[in-house]
């Protein structure tokens, strides 16, 4: 069982593949995929903090409104009563994959470079 801890909107979530969760409204459109900030990957007794080359792929399923919260103000003996409400804007996301490697900018793996060091050039004044 592989899990990851991601960061979205200043909050941290522990997620697994195929899981759906409600988060604060995202700037991404419905149906689009994105990669949230990865903090930790774990599973099967192994935990890695911010592993390089590993990504989490998530898809925005829909944008919704949260449960309505009613707020009332009341002052006794003055006839003062006010009511207002609030509904938080949320996005439902689905975690598609955990552990996919980051692709290179052009899609090609970087070529290995061998470290070769040239001897320093000598001048006639030094010899």
SSE topology string: EEEEEEEEEE
Structural class: mainly beta
Shape: elongated
What would you call the quaternary organization? Answer: single chain
Considering DSSP H and I runs of 4 or more, what fraction of the residues is helical?
under 10%
Enumerate the strands of the largest sheet in spatial order, edge to edge or round the barrel. Answer: 2-1-5-6
> Biggest β-sheet, characterized?
4 strands, antiparallel
The fraction of residues assigned to DSSP E strands is over 45%
- DSSP E strands, number: 10
Tally of alpha and pi helices: 0
Radius of gyration: 26 Å
| Mean pLDDT value | 86
Stretches with pLDDT under 50, minimum 5 residues: 103-108
C-alpha termini separation = 67 Å
Question: Can you give me a brief rundown of this structure?
Answer:
The chain has 127 residues and is mainly β. The chain has no helices and ten strands.
Would you give an account of this structure?
This protein has 127 residues and is mostly beta strands. The chain has a domain at 3-64 and 91-101. Helix content is 0%, strand content 54%. It is built from no helices and ten strands. The strands form three sheets. Strands 2-1-5-6 form a four-stranded antiparallel sheet, with no helix packed on it. A four-stranded antiparallel sheet has the order 3-10-7-4, with no helix packed on it. A hairpin with a 2-residue loop joins strand 5 (37-43) and strand 6 (46-49). It is elongated. It starts with a strand and ends in a 26-residue tail after the last strand. The relative contact order is 0.24. Mean pLDDT is 86; it is low at 103-108.
